[in-house]
Amino acid sequence: MSSHRREFLQGVGGLAAAGFALGTLQVGGGRAEASERDRAVPAIGGVAFDAFTLLDFRALPATAERLFPGQGVRFEELWRTRLFDYSWLRVLGGQYRDFEAVSADAFGFAAAALKLSPPAAVRREYLETVVQLPTWPEVPAALARLRAAGLKLAFLSNFTPAMLASIAHRTGLDRVMDPPLSTDAVRSYKPDPRAYQLAVDAFRLPKERIAFVAHGGWDAAGAGWFGFRTYWINRVGLPREELGVTPVATLPSLSGLPGEVGAVEPAPSGPR
């Protein structure tokens, strides 16, 4: 073989290897290609979920409208915005309070902003709506496929441990998922890297083998910064946050997640 031909073949081989590593070059379709890609991208071993990717949050604005007719949409918006603002501000200021306490503070602000004076029973009903949310319809089937593939599964949420335990027990998710992970353990909130580290420690897997499933675009960005392979469940069609990181995939529901992370649905068994 001439030196020119050998250099040419070596160059093609280098380009192909780079293409496999980046997932951008399609060369052939045989076993060699799949094997090379598998070596370049570690297999997913665990999946961590933000709570609202599994819980149908539509009851929150509906409850607000029932409790505060004509002002429910605005109330829920104010409450939700202040909830995140207060969480992050308290972490930055070294004044941590857990999610339940911050939720109550945000409720007080929203009520004051709208000049409402709800009794304690109304305040309690609204705040307890969060732990009474049902799962999205596709959740049981999606989690069953992920569990059948041998993946570790857990909430990774800003909710308190008590909230997560109550939700998991009430919905039956504790039968298919590992113990929930609350950021309260590190007295912080996502997107603090210490919050995402909880999944690494609990799953005993490197971050490259963990998929994080985000509800908020900001959470998808935070998990991506941390090094997780991030999947954004964007049910309401929001634009991607301009934070310099892109999810591996953006999905309208949880239904497509098992296929995305390699939890292939088993073929039906035929007659013997």
> Spans with pLDDT under 50 lasting ≥5 residues?
1-38, 266-272
Tell me the fraction of residues in β-strands, as a range.
5-15%
Topology as H/E string?
A: HHEHHHHHHEHEHEHEEH
Structural class: alpha/beta
- Strand order, sheet with most strands: 3-2-1-4-5-6
Structure summary, number of beta strands: 6
C-alpha Rg (nearest Å): 22 Å
CATH superfamily of the largest domain: HAD superfamily/HAD-like
**What is the CATH class designation of the largest domain?**
Alpha Beta
Distance between the first and last residues' Cα = 54 Å
The helix count comes to 12
- Major beta sheet summary: 6 strands, parallel
Helix content: 40-55%
Number of domains: 3
User: What CATH architecture label of the largest domain applies?
Assistant: 3-Layer(aba) Sandwich
